Automatic annotation (TrEMBL), chain A:
A Gene Ontology cellular-component term: plasma membrane
Keywords on record: Cell membrane, Membrane, Transmembrane, Transmembrane helix, Transport
TM region positions: 48-67, 111-132, 144-167, 208-226, 246-269, 301-326
Stretches assigned to the ABC transmembrane type-1 domain: 107-322
Protein name stated in the entry: ABC transporter permease subunit
TrEMBL record, chain B:
Name of this chain's protein: Sugar ABC transporter permease
Region (Disordered): 1-23
A cellular-component GO term for this protein: plasma membrane
Domain ABC transmembrane type-1 residues, every copy: 96-296
Subcellular location: Cell membrane
Source organism of the structure: Micromonospora sicca
Pfam families: BPD_transp_1
Segments of skewed composition (Basic residues): 13-22
Tagged with keyword Transmembrane: yes
Amino acid sequence: MTITTPRPSPPAGVTRLRVRSPWRRNAPTRRRSRWAEAQRSWRLHWQLYLLVIVPLAYFVIFKYIPIGNAVIAFKDYNVIQGPWGSDWIGFKNFELFFTNPVFGTLLENTFILAFYLVLASFPIPIMLAIALNEIGNGWFKRTVQMVTYAPYFISTVVVVSMTILVLSPRLGVVNDGLGLFGIAPINFLGDPNYFRHIYVWSDVWQTAGYSAVIYMAALAGIDPALHESAKIDGASRLQRIRHIDLPGIMPTAVIVLILGVGNMMAIGFEKAYLLQNDLNLAQSEIIPTYVYKTGLINADFSMATAVGLFNSVVNLCLLLLVNFAAKRITGSGLWR
Amino acid sequence: MAMSTPTTSTVSRPRRKPAATKKVREPFGDRVFLVVITLMLAVMLALVLLPLIYIVASSFSSATAVSAGRVKFWPVEFSLHAYKVALSNPQVLRGYYNSLIYAVAGTLISVTLTVAIAYPLSRKTFFGRNVLMTVLIFTMLFSGGLIPTYMVVQDLGLLNTRWALLIPNAIGVWQVIIARTFFAHSIPDELYEAATLDGASELRFLRSVVLPLSKPLLAVLVLMYTIYQWNTYFDALVYLKDPDLYPLQIVLRNMLILNQRNVGATDVAQQLQQQQLANVLKYALIVVSSLPVLIIYPFIARHFTKGVLVGAVKG
């Protein structure tokens, strides 16, 4: 992000010399010094600066002090000496974590789950939005929109409970359906191999309608003249979708995908933890749940912080990398 | 992003044929294509709707029918027993009460703080706005993590108090961006100049001009924060130990996912009955807890959509 503040316009009534005269050494400079700008801003907006204090304090206390506290990843933390007073142990926690046999599994589980989630939840909202855009503005369209949007407002706890109930081997309606085809009941939640599918598809179920909204807006922004002329030229609906709609929503799609990949490692703790049980732990243990268990259940603060820090750094690198790639390919990244 | 029109549902489709040319039929291929698309949407609709119907149908069925797995998509042996049990459960009621407190207080705090930082950020002559924005955005990209944040909450003595759910996640950066974009685009500078000429201070201007003009934005913020507070369970899981403070979502988690319940029965028949009741109770609890949100949802969906789209516009 570039830090450029637009030059304040001169107060009314004051005529300023616009043309710089190169032969006058003390000609007014086009840009005021930053100090003068700050002083002027304070005079005008001092009440706003007071207003900002409390929210700013919030960010410092709850977002930046924790970043400082993360130093305990490199320390043998004990409560009495505090985060800064504890003894340095360098990268020992990281070494321990990287050589721990659980490390490979954790990394694999987290990456595969996150990648699967990004891939699966990308195309479906686009399909939904295009399909909704094709059919007229009838009750059917409104119903589909309304119903597919609704699950977004249901809490994670409830969605997970519903998933468990629907997939239950004894009572669940899914196993009933499988029974019709002569398939024996499957204990979906007890089998680690099903965990990722359950996680990802219940997520798609919950968010597809919500994510489609952004694409609907992008579709509404496409110039109708394009469609009109394509129709006159005899383009079919499918051709118009391919050559007008899809290119039209491409910039939006790229940004959504970038955000998705960039936030891959920040994959939700909430859901994975709820879907976890002793039987599917082999694939359901991901870094965030591991951090929670290490830190708050086993009370190993330093180790948990180290693992969390590793996750944050990987996430940041991914985001920067993806943004860089997007800038190269499409010419526009997330920020200028 | 090419988003000139921020409304989706209300925009009339530009490709619709005008009435005069209605007798010109679409080509055969296009009509087939429309049928395919409609079918696809119908399948999607069913996939979303059927699990919801199944849950509701089960919740209205008798305990024995549910436990025998006889309920599909219509109540069997209609009964309200599960609801009576659910609504007389002290834990559930307590959870409801707590969640209401958290939703109301949390939303109040969050909206106030969000406006307090977003409004100055929207003023072009506010020196330092770009630095401040960078400070905020950075917290979206990188965080200290769970434990370092927990340590701060612990040091402030917020652990195991109601404040732990209200303060540590009070401001969402995304919401600040939405609010800032709204203020920047819908409050013209001329209004400010006029108010200054009339001798209004910055705060007075904010109170008497900006806020009354920002009702749609305030509605969006209230909705977003309320739904967040109603639905989240993570903070409570981490920061609360006292069951009296648990919000509804934690109560639900304990009852629905961890299967905790008070076992008082001794003989087998009674145990079986309790087991059956526990099964149907789950369905009723799901309905009871999601109902408030789902009832207001049709009325708020449009505002919510607008909020999402305002935030999506880069700026």
